[in-house]
Please model this.
Amino acid sequence: MSLRSTYCGLAALVISTSGLAFAQHHHGHHQQHHGSHFGHNNWSYVVPHSQQHQHQGAYYVANNAYYYTPTPVVRVVATQPVQIPVVQQQVQLQYGGFARHDDLSGRLNAALNELCLDLHYNYQHNTDYAHTYREAYGVLQLAKSIHAKEHQGDREAIQRTVGTLDEQFHHVQEELAQWTRQARRPIGTGDVMQKVSAAEALMHHLCYDIGVKPHDTDGEQAPPPAGGLEQAPPPANP
Model:
């Protein structure tokens, strides 16, 4: 066994063709999400394949270039050496090319909805919860509005919305940095900061794809139909 495989095995990470993973985040700094957790040390802002939400393929940044690949790259905790995935048919995204914005905004909607659900069920004991949840829910609604603008073909409106979305998202990110969790209901994978990290990686790719510089360089809804994904509830009236 090579020294590289031994080291990766000790890191307890493995690449698989199924599952869901999130990049790490350290609060207080909008730092890059290192791709070593996905088998590539020179990757950052990794957006993995997601079976749960039926989002195919992965996104990543390497050497300041943004890529999409249909290869189902994921991170899975395990006790065996990492098998570095052979990335196939990678496509380099062009700044402002609007090539993957529909897929990226759909993934971002799902990530932000999970974030809000996690806040709703497991973080209400934190100070200023009502205010912060209202802001997070507002970010989710902004993300949902992108789809309407996509259908209208208004690229300038999409750019304005995503610019506002990115700014407001990072404000929420800072407010959540010191929050603690009281586990009442599992939502997706990981805690709220892992969900923030996943949404942040998506935000970076979406901003790049539509030509926007990323920030750092009433009542509960009816239940979804069978097989549908639960939607985050709106904030309580002030």
